[in-house]
Every structure is written in C-alpha cells, then in structure tokens.
Design a protein that fits this description.
- This protein is of the alpha+beta class.
- It has 2 domains: 72 residues, Ubiquitin-like (UB roll); 83 residues, Translation initiation factor 3 (IF-3), C-terminal domain (Translation Initiation Factor IF3, 2-Layer Sandwich), CATH 3.30.110.10.
- The protein has 4 helices and 9 strands.
- A hairpin with a 6-residue loop joins strand 4 and strand 5.
- Helix 3 packs across helix 4.
C-alpha cells in the first residue's frame, strides 16, 4: 500500500475512503462486485496499487484499483493537450472619427487586416463628439467604407450599431 493521502480533483484514494463497502473494479476494468472496504484494500495491496474512489456519489461508491500516480500523470497530459489545441481569440479595437481622411482610413484598414490575419476579432468604432451626433449617417458611411477596404480578409460579425456616442461594428476573420 502506498502511503499517499492526497485529493486531486476531489478523488479519494486509499485511507481517505471511509465507506463500509464499495463496488470494486479491477485493474483491467472487470467488475469484482460489492465487497467490504477492508477486502478492497487487501486486493489493492496485493497488486501494489492504489484504491481510488471514482464515483463517490454512487450507492455504494465505485472504487477502482489503479496506479494513481500514473492516472494523475495521464490526466495532466490530456489537460495540457486540450489547452494546446484551443485558440485564444482577442478583440482588437480600432477607433475612427466621422470625418476621417481616406489615407488615414486606409492605414487603419491595413492594421485591421493584420489583426484579422492573426486570427483576432476587430471592433471598429466611430466616436461622435458635439454636433457630430446630428450626422450619424456619416459614421455609418465611414464604417461601410472600412468594411469594403477590409475585403476578403474578414467578414462582418455584427453590423454597425449606434450605442450612445459611439457607433460600433465587429469584424471576424474569414474561416479558412
């Protein structure tokens, strides 16, 4: 019997298990039926392995004979693999004004294309100040022009919408 007494992910092992009897599963996955806890400990000790409570909420709880260290290692490997495969998507913001010059708009569009090619989403916002609020259609035209400049690099995820003093539009990378 290993002298380990730790709970990783809430699994009870060896002496932490306090039930009178448990449903026991052998190393190869075969059912050994409901046995007294003492007998389960003996079987695990004979095989020089741990007794792990894999289903503590079941009646009686289900315990499995396994090498807990190896099991923990396999689980951490799986977790690492899952983390490696997920892509983190950032949202980059580009701010414009309703009366932006065409050259400045092109520069901002090229920057947005770079973001989209990196797999990031882009939030494009036009901020209206003072009397510009009376001409929100100019902001809409700027955002439409911006979307044309982006072209095939991305597509509109959320259409332009006025929220307070800002008009925002979300772009996302084109799926490959």
């Amino acid at each position: 019997m290993h002298g380990r007494c730790r709970i990783i992910k809430e699994l009870q092992i060896n002496e932490e298990i306090r039930e009178k009897e448990v449903r026991l599963i052998d190393v190869d996955g075969s059912q050994l039926g409901v046995v007294p806890l003492k007998r389960a400990f003996e079987l695990a000790a004979e095989r020089r392995l741990d007794l792990v409570n894999v289903a503590p909420t079941a009646k009686p709880p289900v315990c499995k004979i396994m090498d807990y260290g190896k099991y923990k290692y396999e689980m951490s490997k799986k977790e690492k693999e899952a983390r490696k495969n997920q892509k983190i998507i950032n949202i980059k913001e580009i701010r414009l004004t309703p009366n932006i010059e065409s050259h400045d708009l092109n520069v901002k569009a090229n920057r947005a294309i770079e973001f989209l090619q990196d797999g990031d989403k882009v939030k494009v916002s036009v901020r209206f100040r003072g009397r510009e609020m009376g001409h929100t259609e100019m902001g809409k035209e700027v955002l439409d022009e911006f979307a044309k400049l982006i072209g095939d690099a991305g597509k509109i995820e959320k259409e332009a919408k006025l929220e307070g003093r800002n008009m925002t539009m979300f772009l996302m990378p084109k799926p490959e």
